[in-house]
Structures are given as C-alpha cells and as structure tokens.
Amino acid sequence: MRRVLPSMIALSAFEAAGRLGSFSAAAEELFVTQGAISRQIRGLEEYLGTKLFIRLTRRVELTPAGEMYLREIQQALDHVERATVNFKTRESRHSILTISVLPSVASFWLMSRLDSFTQQNPSIETRILTSIRAVDLQSNEADVAIRVGALPGKIYDARQPRIDLDMVSNWRGVNAEPLFDDVLVPVVSPKLLDPFGPVNEPADLLRLPLIHTASRTHAWRDWLGIYGLHEPPGKERIEYGHFFMAIEAARKGQGVALVPSILLSRFSPEELVTPLRSDTPSAGSYYLLMLADRAREPQCAAFCSWIKEQAAQVQAAGVEA
C-alpha cells in the first residue's frame, strides 16, 4: 500500500523553521535560500489544508495546529535519525567479527587456525572473547560463539559423560551449527609412566594421580563409569579451573588429565601421550552459535563457512584436531 506522505524536503524545512522560529535561520541551517524555505512550507500548508505559521514582520510563529504537527514530526524525524545512526553504526561493524569462544578451544584449536581465515577474508577484523559462561547473543555480546554442551530436547545415552555447561542464556532465534563431538581422552607425560608402569586398560590409570577440571566436575567419574570403575575414596585430588591448565599440569608430569581430544593436536609424543583411546562421545558437542537472522551477514556467513570446513577436516582426519 502506497504511503500518504508529504515531501521530506518540506518536512525538514518545516521542522527547522518551527524549531528556530525563523525562515531565514532555517534557510541558513539547511544551506538553501529563505525563498526556498517559504515555498516548501507554503506547499506543505496546501498539502495539509491548514496554516502552520503566522507570518509577522520579522519573525514567524507557529499556529496551534503547527505546534501540534511540529511535535509529531520531530518525534518521527528523531526516530528516522536514530534508525539511520544505528544502521550506519552496524554497517561500520560489518568488517569486525566478534567471536566468543571457550578459553581452551581458543588456546589449543582456534588461534592456530585463525590466520587462514584472515588470509581468506582480509577485510574482516576478528576480535576474540574467551569465556565458559552462557553467551548472550541477543544483546550483541558477540556475533558468533563456540560452545560445548547439550542441545535442548536432544536425548543422550545415560552412559555418556555429562557436560554441565549452558551454551546460551536464551535459545530464542539461535542457530546451532554442529562442529565436532566432545570426546574425552586421558593424557599424560611419558616421563610419568616410567615410575608408575604402562597403562594398558582404564583400571591402570587409577595408579596415577588424576587431574580434575573445575569446569567439568563429573568428567572423571562419568568416564570411569563407562568401564565400571570409580576413583578410590581418599585419593589425592588435583584440580585446575580450565582444560588448558589441566593439560599443562599433565605435560609437567603432575598426573593424568582427562581432556577433549580436540585440544591435543599441538603436542608432540615427547610431551603428552594418550595411553588409551576412547570412542564414547560426551552428552553434547561443540557448536557454532549465532542468531539465525544474522546468518547472512557477510562476516558471519564467511566465518561459518570457514569453521565448518575446519571442522570437516578434523572429522575426516580422525585425529586430535
């Protein structure tokens, strides 16, 4: 349906004249002649069928109808101005991509690969925010996020290790693109195996100090439970806040850590070994999260395409990516 609107030029002339109380001041502000302002306002009055100004010798005054119309027009123009500023600000951010990512994934997986994204997309500047808390995408905290967890409504096997992390604060309008499974594997320094002996089966791990991670408190209990085992009561507990801390502790020979296989590609066999393989994924996966209505924005679409390629390479290689 076609809108019934007067000329925007006329409305701008009227708003300036009404606000300044002068045709000449309005003309100066809008960089036109006083005669142009007078003609625009006269045309607007004819369009509306009413007088908006009382013309006096050296000034003009709004009529009651003019005062009411000015208030309405100023509110409408304020809205248009805010919408324009917001849009321009958003457009200026289109070359900036803010990525919220888990700290350990950032350290051991994303950062070493991100250079290839930058090379493929030189006009997109990436900014990294690291956090394990649920991301708030509706507040524009980040453009995209990488999180691990269970999808709402999805049913998992009770034997799968739990992931006690919320991925988002609100699922409304959020699209979740699967990246890769979360598979926990034990890792240990080869130097630590010398005094404790070889690890041939899960029960052998109980001879070593177990390194726990605070962000996944049930990891060892659930993983051992797959094999009908449990941590002996009274066993000394070593705990760190994040996986990257647990991995570093294992590398230094403090014990055996249970960590996602996705974090291990950068370590040589001289630093860390995986004495036992595990094929049981956790009750949740790694996802790329973004608002569905932002998926077509150039920087979001480019990153989504790139990271899905990276994830596909991980799955195809079948290695600790």
From TrEMBL:
One Gene Ontology MF term: sequence-specific DNA binding
Keywords in alphabetical order: DNA-binding, Transcription, Transcription regulation
SUPFAM superfamilies for this protein: Periplasmic binding protein-like II (SSF53850), Winged helix' DNA-binding domain (SSF46785)
Domain HTH lysR-type: 6-63
Signal peptide interval: none
Top-level taxon: Bacteria
Record GO biological process: DNA-templated transcription
Family the entry assigns: Belongs to the LysR transcriptional regulatory family.
Protein name: LysR family glycine cleavage system transcriptional activator
